[in-house]
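Figure 3 (text version): structure tokens given as input.
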């Protein structure tokens, strides 16, 4: 889970064969907080990973490996920080 105690999110990597994406759900309500399509040119879009929350330059980053790439997202918005 990521985020402050009053707004926790559960993050899921959904790297299926077609249209891979990352999904964040509100931990209290189960409602979708954000959903981001994976921007990748991978030959095989099917992978498994465990999200990792890190701190770099005093900011949290959510690192999620995927097919042929590693992504870092802003935890509360899903904005791509780096790829």
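Below: residues designed for each position.
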């Amino acid at each position: 889970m990521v985020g402050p105690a009053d707004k926790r999110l559960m993050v899921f990597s959904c790297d299926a064969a077609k249209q891979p994406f990352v999904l964040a759900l509100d931990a209290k309500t189960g409602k979708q907080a954000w959903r981001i399509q994976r921007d990748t040119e991978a030959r095989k879009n099917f992978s498994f990973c465990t999200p990792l929350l890190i701190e770099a330059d005093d900011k949290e980053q959510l690192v999620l490996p995927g097919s042929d790439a590693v992504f870092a997202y802003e935890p509360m918005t899903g904005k791509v920080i780096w790829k």
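The two ends are 21 Å apart (CA to CA).
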